[in-house]
TrEMBL record:
One of its GO terms (molecular function) is lytic endotransglycosylase activity. The gene is rlpA. It holds the Pfam family DPBB_1. This is Probable endolytic peptidoglycan transglycosylase RlpA. PANTHER family: ENDOLYTIC PEPTIDOGLYCAN TRANSGLYCOSYLASE RLPA (PTHR34183:SF1). Its EC number is 4.2.2.-. The keyword Cell wall biogenesis/degradation applies. The lineage of its organism: Bacteria, Pseudomonadati, Acidobacteriota, Terriglobia, Terriglobales. Lytic transglycosylase with a strong preference for naked glycan strands that lack stem peptides. One of its GO terms (biological process) is cell wall organization.
Length: 172
């Protein structure tokens, strides 16, 4: 074999090699698909990927505004919930929250907070968002000033839970 023919043979082999590799890959893939075991529907659940547990994000309701308090003048008068107002109880009046809801009220001036139960409607002044009982106002440190900026966060709207936490009739 002369040297010129040898160069042509090696050139032809170089061009055939990539084609051969491509054919082998295709045959290998076809064989792999044919050899995968089929799973009966009854056993599919065992081999299925584990279910992804979705985490629900809870969006907490809150409101920021001015709070005030009411006390002695309303003592013993009927509230919107039907119970008599008790200025020494941890209660409040709000325009829209369901009666019996539990809310956390935080004084934004001193960062003190208290949990109160909504048992009345109000406040009457339009620039206020909540009226607190005398006791709740004392815990927040706004008895002297009368009003303060607050953040209201809804904790529970379940009226039955609120009833268990703050019974309308005192325990005997």
């Amino acid at each position: 074999m002369n040297p010129i023919e040898r160069n042509r043979d090696s050139a032809n082999r170089r061009h055939l090699h990539p084609v051969g590799v491509a054919v082998m890959i295709l045959v290998g893939l076809a064989g792999a698909q044919a050899s995968t075991p089929t799973i009966r529907p009854a056993l599919q659940a065992e081999h299925a990927a584990p279910a992804v547990k979705r985490v629900r994000r809870h969006h907490h309701w809150y409101q920021i505004g001015i709070a005030s308090w009411y006390g002695k003048f309303f003592q013993g008068k009927e509230t919107a919930s039907g119970e008599p107002y008790n200025m020494n109880a941890m209660t409040c009046a709000h325009r829209t929250l369901p009666l019996g809801s539990l809310v956390r009220v935080t004084n934004l001036r001193n960062d003190k907070s208290v949990v109160v139960r909504v048992n009345d409607r109000g406040p009457l002044p339009e620039n206020r968002v909540i009226d607190l009982s005398y006791a709740a106002a004392g815990f927040l440190g706004l008895r002297h000033s009368g009003t303060a900026p607050v953040r209201i966060e809804l904790i529970k709207t379940n009226a039955q839970l609120a009833q268990l936490s703050y019974p309308l009739t005192p325990a005997r």
